[in-house]
Design a protein that fits this description.
Elements (H helix, E strand, L loop, with lengths): L3 H8 L6 E2 L6 H13 L10 E7 L1 H14 L6 H15 L3 E8 H10 L7 H22 L3 E5 L6 H7 L6 E12 L11 H4 L5
Antiparallel strand pairs: 1-5, 2-3, 3-5, 4-5
Protein name: Nitroreductase
Keywords: Cytoplasm, Oxidoreductase
GO molecular function: oxidoreductase activity
Length: 200
Amino acid sequence: MSNQFLDQITQRRTIYAIGKNVNQTPEHLTDLIQTAIKQSPSSFNSQSSRAVILFNGESEKFWNLVAEKLKSYAKDEENASKTAAKMASFAAGIGTVLFFEDMDVVKGLQEQFPSYAENFPIWAEHSTAIAQFAVWTALHTDGIGASLQHYNPIVDEQVHAEWDIPASWNLRAQLAFGSIEGEAKAKGFMDDAARFKVFQ
């Protein structure tokens, strides 16, 4: 079966080896990221997803904050060294997208539609996941490698202070991106029979 969209998501992979050797300008990449998020669906068209796009030194600053915070979790010097190297690999890219969900929007929907109140936080998670996937795939189609990380909530306080983030924005994920400097690992798949049921 030939399908352009399926071809793109099939080729998209987690790329850990990233660099700053990109031809696209920050303006181009910003437009790409913003468009991908704006066109991502959300429950009740709530548009609850938010993003902070960090380039170059600002992206490095974020990963330095994470590295500093993780020092307190290191069990020994070897573990600390590995963690520092991992954070440096993310900082080596051209940028990072910080994905948030605006909980004021979620609370507003809960008040407006009380019968669905318990579902809106769940649906907000769906919204951010779709936005993350859309951005990741859009970057891939532009020849940019990326990996999705989750160092929230350990750096939430520092992030909110450093970039003046509204208190209602809840950090959900971080996408480090840049030039592709190494191949992705092979991806295995479980048997379809264990994953899908089809009735006709």
